[in-house]
Amino acid sequence: MSQAAEGRPGTKARNRRVAGADPEKRRQILDGAQAIFHAQGFDAASMNEIAAAAGVSKGTLYVYFEDKEHLFVALIEREREKHRQHMDDALAEHPDLSQALAGFGVNLVRLLTDPFSLSAHRIVLGVAERMPDLGRAFFERGPLLGGQRLAAFLNDRISAGDVAIEDTTLAAGQFIDLCQSTLLRPRLFNAERRPPTDAEITHVVDAAVAMFLARYARPVG
Amino acid sequence: MSQAAEGRPGTKARNRRVAGADPEKRRQILDGAQAIFHAQGFDAASMNEIAAAAGVSKGTLYVYFEDKEHLFVALIEREREKHRQHMDDALAEHPDLSQALAGFGVNLVRLLTDPFSLSAHRIVLGVAERMPDLGRAFFERGPLLGGQRLAAFLNDRISAGDVAIEDTTLAAGQFIDLCQSTLLRPRLFNAERRPPTDAEITHVVDAAVAMFLARYARPVG
Amino acid sequence: MSQAAEGRPGTKARNRRVAGADPEKRRQILDGAQAIFHAQGFDAASMNEIAAAAGVSKGTLYVYFEDKEHLFVALIEREREKHRQHMDDALAEHPDLSQALAGFGVNLVRLLTDPFSLSAHRIVLGVAERMPDLGRAFFERGPLLGGQRLAAFLNDRISAGDVAIEDTTLAAGQFIDLCQSTLLRPRLFNAERRPPTDAEITHVVDAAVAMFLARYARPVG
Amino acid sequence: MSQAAEGRPGTKARNRRVAGADPEKRRQILDGAQAIFHAQGFDAASMNEIAAAAGVSKGTLYVYFEDKEHLFVALIEREREKHRQHMDDALAEHPDLSQALAGFGVNLVRLLTDPFSLSAHRIVLGVAERMPDLGRAFFERGPLLGGQRLAAFLNDRISAGDVAIEDTTLAAGQFIDLCQSTLLRPRLFNAERRPPTDAEITHVVDAAVAMFLARYARPVG
DNA sequence: GATGAATGAGCCTTCATTCAT
DNA sequence: CATGAATGAAGGCTCATTCAT
Question: What is the pLDDT of residues B124-138, one digit of tens each?
Answer without folding.
Answer: 998 898 888 889 999
